[in-house]
Specification:
Shape: globular
Number of strands: 5
Radius of gyration: 12 Å
Number of helices: 4
Strand order of the largest sheet: 1-3-2-4-5
Order of helices and strands: EHEHEHEEH
Structural class: alpha/beta
Largest sheet: 5 strands, mixed
Length: 106
Amino acid sequence: MSTVNVTDSSFSDSVLNSDKPVLVDFWAEWCGPCKAIAPALEEMAQSMGDRVTVAKINIDENPQTPQQYGVRGIPTLILFKDGQVAATKMGAMPKAQLQQWVDEAL
């Protein structure tokens, strides 16, 4: 399984109503750190696909959702469980650290 793109209009169905946890990456095309963590997120989507969905939302194309969740800088990663925010992390980090954070939050 690879990362899933979500939009303001699909966010509720894809993330809040998901039957498993969803890790949402708030990113933008011009963001260097966002591009730096993209391969790690893609790998996590494949290795952890049975436990968690990894979703990406472009904040330039979808301004409502980041505003709703108070996203002030990118990349911001928010882990949702049962439609609720379970954990939030801001900034790029190595894959091992990212993996550990998700494992602890699950």
